[in-house]
Amino acid sequence: MKLIKSNKYILVLLGVLMGLSACESYIEEDIFSDITSENFIDENTADQLVVGVYASLRGVYKDYGFQFLGTDIFTSKGEVFSFNASNDYFGLNSGGAIWGRNYNVIAKANTAINRYENEIQFSDSKLADKAYGIAQAKALRGLAFFNLVQQYGGVVMELEEPNSIRSDYARSSEQETYTQIISDLEAAIPNLQDAPETGRFSKRAAQHLLAEVYLTRAYTSFGDASDFGTAAVLAEQAIGNYDIRSQSYAQVFDYENQVNPEILFAIQYGTSGEAADRNNNKHSLFLNSVNDYPGIARINPYGRSDFGAMPTPFFYSLFDENDTREEPTMHRVLLANEEVEYNSDFGTDLIAVGDTVIYYPKVALEAAELAEKLNRYYVYQPDQYLFGVPDNIDGAIYQYSANLNRTNFPIFKKFGDVDFDESEGGSRDTFVFRVAGTHLLAAEAHLGAGNTTQALFHINRVRERATGIASSYSSVTLDDILNERAIELAGEVNRWAVLKRTGKLQERIELYNPHVIDHGAFDPSIHFLRPIPSSELELSDGSLTQNPGY
């Protein structure tokens, strides 16, 4: 992974603290001292404005709740009868941090664009740098607006550098928002680089994003008849000549291989520099309280759970026997990292470092094998991957009633880190776009455009890497693509937005999300949009309106 020094810059711009915070491990930054707002930003230092935009993306991609909860493949990590507003759509009235964090990106992008276009004098030899800086800022602004429009519908279309406090913001329509996103990305693509410095937005990353924007608009009432076809062409361009079969799924998620040709864009972290360089918590997703198992200490190789979500039983059911993605995705066996003497009413087990502590079999064990294994470690069968206490097995050393964990499931491995402090301190990159995902965008776009031959090609290319079989699918449906996305991209992309886009959200949560099945309150007249944060409404002069039903 490419590492750089991380530094903070305090820049007073027209009396506004812009806070260009540390941006590490992917974009080179220089050290400045004794600087003022008058002499800091010139053609030689202007790139620091763009660096500040990249830095603000970290917060956006650490906001997980509205990406994963309340979907078909992730649910809340409590009793089936427990309530979680984001997952169950019951009493949902908070828009979360998505609004503020994406508008932080937009504000910094607007500042960069304005300064590049109107205030910094670029010499003729630096005009290409000027165009490149503006292109990056516009692409990142388009990304932030796309994150917002998927969640809230039409949003405030703020395109100017923030120079004063305002309260008269009004929302644009959803259609106008998409038009602006497309405008930003189409303006950016010609001036983005094919192979930029690691961590910067490339031309292919922008093509991937624009493909997804057109694809999403294609499903709307205001979409253009050509949107599916346009999305397909852009996805093909983003794939380019890269063959995903050149490396395995396990290699893609190898910690030592984070900068690799499949990754079109990633939020990067590192193992040196300021604390912000090492504060990714991606490894803490989709874990249970592993340190409650005997033999696993509080500080352990897996991490500490920091997110109240878990995969659904449906998610685990999607992996065929020959799917090589299962092993890199999840831990079915957890190992001890401390010596412990485990005692129960039926005997004692001496746990050594490296011993199995718990096993989550893919296929249910027969009674005799289960009883034998329960004398050496805990075993949870596939139908027990939810909250609950299975019946004890008479005579077994490991009694289910003695397990402090009440929610037991195969935890995620694909985001595993090697340099973290419990739930924080991680330095693994967060992948935003990768080519396997682009293939699945292409499959969906071609399917929408009526080209099933090309849709099959792209979904089969993803499946071939996983199984070695070139033509696993002989026909393709939207549900096939959603299932393939679930396996390939779990925890990487906004699953809620994908289900909303395809019109499958309500259908699939009512089929596969245990808490929704039990007591979900999804209302299609309300819950295809998120509530505008109440704090934003209170700060406005009444011009900012709430979404219906909230």
CATH first level of the largest domain = Mainly Alpha
* Class inferred from helices and paired strands: mainly alpha
Strand content: 5-15%
* Intertermini distance: 44 Å
- Counted beta strands: 13
CATH architecture of the largest domain: Alpha Horseshoe
Helical percentage? 25-40%
The coarse silhouette is globular
Provide the residue-averaged pLDDT. 91
Main beta sheet strand tally, sense and closure: 3 strands, mixed
Low-confidence stretches: 1-26, 28-39
CATH topology type of the largest domain:
Serine Threonine Protein Phosphatase 5, Tetratricopeptide repeat
In order across it, which strands form the biggest sheet?
7-10-11
Number of helices: 19
* Cα radius of gyration in angstroms: 24 Å
Number of domains: 2
Question: Could you characterize the architecture of this molecule?
Answer:
By secondary structure, the protein is mainly alpha-helical. It has two domains: 347 residues, Serine Threonine Protein Phosphatase 5, Tetratricopeptide repeat, CATH 1.25.40.390; 107 residues, no CATH class. Helices cover 37% and strands 8% of the residues. The protein is built from 19 helices and 13 strands. The strands form six sheets. It has a three-stranded mixed β-sheet with strand order 7-10-11, with no helix packed on it. Strands 1-2 form a two-stranded antiparallel ribbon. α12 links the parallel β10 and β11. The longest helix is centred in the N-terminal third of the chain and has 26 residues. The chain is globular and about 80 Å long. The protein starts with 11 loop residues before the first strand and ends in an 11-residue tail after the last helix. The N terminus is likely disordered.
